[in-house]
Please model this.
Amino acid sequence: MGLCYAKVLSYVVPMKSAPLKSLHHAVINVAVTLILAACTTPERTAVTVTEPAPAPEMPAGPSVQDEAAFQVWLKDFRREAAAKGISARTLDLAFADIKLIPRVIELDRKQPEFTQTFWRYLDGAVSEARVRDGAARLKENGALLDGLEKKYGVPGRFLVAFWGLETNYGRNLGGYPVIHALATLAFEGRRATFFKTELFDALLILDRGHTTADKMVGSWAGAMGQTQFMPSTFLKHAVDETSDGRIDVWGQTPDALGSGAHYLQNLGWNPKQTWGREVRLPAKFDFTLASLDGGAKDTLKSLQEWSTLGLTRADGAPLPRQDVQAALIIPAGAKGPAFLVYDNFRAILKWNRSIFYAVAIGYLSDRITGGPALAGTRVNDPPMAREQVMALQSALQKLGELKAEPDGVFGSGTRQALQVYQRKCGFPADGYPSPDMVRILVSDSTPTTPCGRGRLGLP
Model:
């Protein structure tokens, strides 16, 4: 599966950034950032991640040029791998002509300069071209997908959606030799334990004969195959759907999609439910009922309870009369679309802990089977710069709402602190950092003016 840190950062936690500059300097940069971003056409790229900008400061580590040190480390690792039972032949083939990959270390040490927005993400994830392609793939692989649904309980439209988002239906498998990339990351040391374990698992996959080192390609972080499994995920969940004695998630679509279905089954997929649905909210809705955590489970209510609160389907029709527990999410804030999401949505989040990703999977699965486009209002807010997030966090800290130090990452803690401030000051408490909300909050962050002069100009 694709790693969370290789996806958009609206609901995931990347690395820390450099310390906060003066608030005055931050506010100036916020204004410049918003003006420039508003004049930029949103990029419509694949959702597997644009390469992020470098963090200003990074912990000390081995030089990417220290090839000699890497080769010494590799000798020690080979002895350890041999002691774990990896054959000498596998080690010889896997590590033939291996060298550090500086680009992998560079990517691991980089961070996005901007926080992705919901609509810009969705434009790339669920483009009209991807919808058309997905509908064609669903039809072409109908017999296979029907069989997988009977076996694992996961409808084909969801498997096709994962296939589309992870590798654009098998077209973009990644161009890095997985063994070399994982060895580089294990040596580099920032997350050595994690990547060393993944490297052992990758060698075990080779040792079992599922593929060869030259065919084991993937992302810079080691995610592999048409559904982008890490080696540990492969060993736990991948299946030989073709019954040829090998699990080939690179070249065999049945193995790739069967492995995805088996993984979702193991993550708790409920075959009797869908993922969720877009809904319409009543006027003057209490947005504190919306979930702000990464698991989308802050407030669970039955569909009947949500209906009593005034929620309907997106077209205004009543919600289904089913005994289903649902959470409400508003990924673009109070002005954007709203969704009631079910247990299967949380299963998707176990695959990739990004709310945007999980919504995109569900939405794409609906669209490729003829579902409508979203009815909610499109919110074209520009992406937030890291310095802008730092200014927002500093303001929340000064107001006593945020206990953690500013880090430039708009995660659930910052979102919940913002919601508290909004509720106290009488704003829609959606936890959403719109440009207006950021401007208001920063101007309010002095002891004498909380909820005061920042109200000026509020739409």
